[in-house]
Amino acid sequence: MTLFSILKPTKFASAERLSAEDIKQQADVFKTDKKAYAVLDMMPDGVLILNSERQAIYANKALLSFLNCETDESILGLRPGEIVDCFNAKNETGGCGTTEFCRSCGAVNAILATQKCHLEDKRECEIITLNDTAYNFRVWTYPFEKDGATYTLFAIRDIADEKYRCILERIFFHDLTNIGAGLYGLLNMIDGNSDMYQEHHQLLINLAEEILEEISVQRDIMAAENGAMSVNWEKVNSLKCIKSVVETYRKHQVAEGKNIQITTTEETWFKTDGRLLKRILGNMLKNAFEASTQGQTVTIKSTVSGNKIIFEVHNESVIPIEFQAKIFKRSVSTKGKGRGLGTYSIKLLSENYLQGKASFLSTLENGTSFFTEYPLEPTEETEK
Question: Which superfamily is assigned to 3-158 in CATH?
């Protein structure tokens, strides 16, 4: 067999590959083992057989179905990241496993660990594709030998829904516990004192409203995900909507010690779902507050451009460059593990239900702005 270098650099794993002729020879060897093929094709998870250069010489039916491929001929010789169209695998280096970003990839690290230690391994990895699709995978690797050569059995499972459910639960219980703890502490402090109750009456109401809001948020996200969200089209005043959301979040715990300002805003009436719009603008404000430090100012405004209305929420912080390509993905956050549904729901509700568009711009010089735009008159008023 002939090892050849494709004359491209590597910043992590080896870039060397076998020739197409050698790949075909290896693949043909496995095709003679029909019993093994039949077993692998029965597996519900995607499976690859990789050679010592991490190149695929076999893919089972489950993986081919995931890739919408009839046969494995088009993926033979490719590496896992190249097969699923990983953004980092398609660059000037030696492909999958050879970039600086690959150092933190669970898939290639599992393969390398199995090749080095001849032991099975299990890890998770997150992949962003060239067409901006985000995947969460769990992978298993197993070493085995055939005809004196060493191979790796590579099994892969899409766990995006599992991760998403965990995040939903974690956020829900985390936020609900925080609010509930505040409510419990305040009630303990009042302890039947009527004067203190009168003094903190509004705060008690605010905390109760926050609990109901958290429950409503989770319910709406799940309904939107399942396509069960109904849209109630109505005429909405842009300035009144902004003022209502600002007043709500001015009292929110995430706004403590921070400022909020409504800047130049064009007041206009347009057709949308007022409840969903307030949910979106509320998430934009909440994200901006969470990204801000004490004393910083968050601003919100709306402008009319042609037949569209554009809302903008700005904060003074910048989103780290490594997160910017992943914004609006449902399990990605710049605020730590288990956060990040805010930006995802902004895009989900805006683009799937209100015929709008969500975007952002983040620079060191100007901070971060999130934008949503909507038609003044929706073209279709059908419910999802």
Answer: PAS domain (3.30.450.20)
Please give the C-alpha separations between residue 258 and each of 286, 294, 364, in angstroms, as whole numbers. Answer: 12, 5, 20
Phi/psi at 193 (nearest 5 deg)?
-80, 110
Residues 260-270: tens digit of each pLDDT: 999 977 789 99
In eight-state DSSP terms, residue 102 is G
Reported as a single tens digit per residue, the pLDDT across 215-248 is: 877 777 777 777 777 888 999 999 999 999 998 8
Sequence letter at residue 16: E
Residues 86/110, Cβ–Cβ less than 8 Å: no
Domain boundaries, the chain: 3-158, 162-225, 234-375
CB 167 within 8 A of CB 173: no
Contact assessment for residue 312 and residue 300, using Cβ atoms and an 8 Å cutoff: yes
Q: Domain 234-375 is classified in which CATH homologous superfamily?
A: Histidine kinase-like ATPase, C-terminal domain (3.30.565.10)
Give φ, ψ of 128 to 5 degrees. Answer: -110, 125
Q: What is the CA radius of gyration of the chain?
A: 26
Ranges of H-type helices in 274-325: 274-291, 321-324
What does the alpha-carbon distance between residue 171 and residue 336 come to, in Å, rounded to a whole number?
Answer: 11
